[in-house]
Amino acid sequence: MATAVAPGSLSNLGPGFDVLGLALREPLDRVDATRTSGPGVTVRNAGPFGDRVPEDPDRNIAAWAASQVLAASEASGGLSLIVHKHIPPGSGLGSSAASAVAGAVASARALDASLDPTALLAIGRDAEALTAGSPHLDNVAPALLGGFVAVLGTTPPDIRTLPLAGDWSLAVVLPELEVRTSEARNVLPRRVPLVDAVQNLRDLTGLLDAAARGDLAAFCRHLGDQLAQPYRAPLVPWLDGARDAAMAAGAPALSISGSGPAVFAPCADPSSAARVRDAVVGWLDARGIGSLGWVTGPGPGALDA
C-alpha cells in the first residue's frame, strides 16, 4: 500500500484570482492506494466528510485522478483506494484539488510510476475541470508542491514558488454553508471596469512585495479584490459581519478563500490567530451558523509530505 497526504489550500488570496495559492498545514486529505490484480479503480471513502463524496469511481475525483495515473503508467492490473476525507467539499479550501492530488500521488507511488510534477499538475487541472466546470491550478499547485505559489500558465502547467518571508499564523474558519465553485464562477462578469483591473494590479504587486519582505501589515492592506469578490458578495452575505468580528479581535484583515465560504486572517502568532478564530466562530454561532476553525499556517504539498 502507498499513501499520500495533500493539504487544503487558500486560493486567490485577495487580488490573485486564479493565480495565487497557499498550502496549509491543515486540514489534510489522505489517500491509501493498493495495487490490485483486477482492472480499473475501486474506491471507499472514510474520514469525517467521507459520506459527502461519491464512491462511484467515475464520480469520485480521487479515483478519476488514479485512473489517469493508471492509464499513463501502462501498468497491468488496477488500484483500490481509500479516501480519508478531512476537507469538506464546497469549502473554498481546495477540497477537490486535495483529493485529486492525493489520489494521483498515492497511485503513482503504488504503481511505481515515474510521473513528473508537470504531469501530476495536468491530472489535477483536468480533475478540477470536471468538478468546477473550468480548468484551474490555484488549489492544485499548492496541494502538490506546497508553500506559496503562482500560476503563470494552465495549459501546459507553469508554476512558480514565491517567497513568503513572514512566519505567520493563519486563522481559518469554515462556516457550515456551501458555495459551489461552479456557481461562484457563473456570477462573474466577462468584463470589468479598467479602474478595477488597475486596482487589482496594484494590490497584487503590493501583496507579493509584502510577502517577500515578511510585512504582515502591508500584506493585509493588499488583500482587496475588485475582480471577483464584489460579484460574489450575494453568495456570502455574512462576510462583512465576520470581518468586523475578526478585526475587533485584533485581526489586521479577513478575506475569503477561493469562492468561499472559508475565510482566513493572517496573524502574527498562534495566540493571536486563536483569538480571531474564536471570535469569528462565536459570531457565526450567535447567528445560528455552525463552523469549523483552525489555527494553521503555510505547509508542504503532497510531494513533500
Low-confidence stretches: none
Structural class: alpha+beta
**Overall helicity:** 25-40%
Q: Tell me the number of strands.
A: 10
Give the CA-CA distance, first to last residue: 16 Å
CATH topology of the largest domain: Ribosomal Protein S5, domain 2
**Biggest beta-sheet profile:** 6 strands, mixed
H/I helix tally? 10
Which shape, going by the Cα principal axes?
globular
Order of helices and strands: EEEHEHHHEEEHHHHHEEHE
Strand content: 15-25%
Identify the notable features of this structure and list them briefly:
about 300 residues, alpha+beta, Ribosomal Protein S5, domain 2, Alpha-Beta Plaits, 2 domains, six-stranded mixed β-sheet, four-stranded antiparallel β-sheet, 10 strands, about 25% strand, globular
Provide structural commentary.
By secondary structure, this protein is an alpha+beta fold. Helices cover 37% and strands 23% of the residues. The chain has helices at residues 61-73, 95-111, 117-132, 140-145, 181-186, 194-213, 216-221, 229-232, 239-248, 270-285; strands at 2-11, 20-36, 40-46, 78-84, 148-153, 158-161, 169-175, 255-256, 263-267, 291-296. The strands form 2 sheets. Strands 1, 2, 3, 4, 5 and 6 form a 6-stranded mixed β-sheet that branches. The radius of gyration is 19 Å and the shape is globular.
Question: Topology of this structure?
Answer:
Layout: E1 2-11, E2 20-36, E3 40-46, H1 61-73, E4 78-84, H2 95-111, H3 117-132, H4 140-145, E5 148-153, E6 158-161, E7 169-175, H5 181-186, H6 194-213, H7 216-221, H8 229-232, H9 239-248, E8 255-256, E9 263-267, H10 270-285, E10 291-296
Parallel strand pairs: 3-4
Antiparallel strand pairs: 1-2, 2-4, 2-5, 5-6, 7-9, 7-10, 8-9
Helix pairs in contact: 1-2, 1-3, 2-3, 9-10
